[in-house]
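Because discrete structure vocabularies remain unfamiliar, we first show an illustrative case, written as a sequence plus integers encoding its fold.
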Amino acid sequence: MILKYMNYASLTATYASRAVTAARGIPIAGFGLRRGPGDGNAITAERSGYIGGFASTSNVLAGIRLGIPISGTMSHELVQGLSLLTGSEVEAFVIYGRNNPGNQIFLTDTFVSLRGIEHAIKASEILGQVSKAIREDSGDLIKKSIEARELDKDKKGFKGIGLSGDLDIEQIDKIATSGADVSFLGLGTRFIAPAELYQNEIVSALGGVYKLSALESDSGELEP
């Protein structure tokens, strides 16, 4: 049990620390709850992520139990559901914005990214408030973040841009050095279930071991 706990906690804390270093100051939120292996490991991972330098977690239970700052955005499911009910992605954003006045982060790539960004800007106009951010979750994230800022150069539609979507350390490094205007990153799958190519092998576990041994004296007594 000690090995099980220490190996996984060390693996995820180390990955988080490397990701934070690669991000060069861009805040990272832990997004990995749904991909956590085994019962309870998602809490362990979010704790490790915070130790490794993550700014927050989307795991509400981890926030409550451990005092980690909680952050999050709307989901694709919510965008789809509200868009279906109202017939408009703009209205979906408006409803979410009205019910989350302190956390107006619109997920813009559920349907068509550029159109979604335009809809987020329109929603901010209707709400009469510049939204906190938009979030892009797929595709060429650097290109999308640049295009998003070009659509809203004066930041009248949204203040920040968040990126997520199976990010890994290499991608985070590219984002951080691209010059793109990125406000936060969401790191989930690759952090909570790390798997990397290391010396031509896929590594997805920490090879920590524990050996119990003893010395037998001439009298036959065992000394741990």
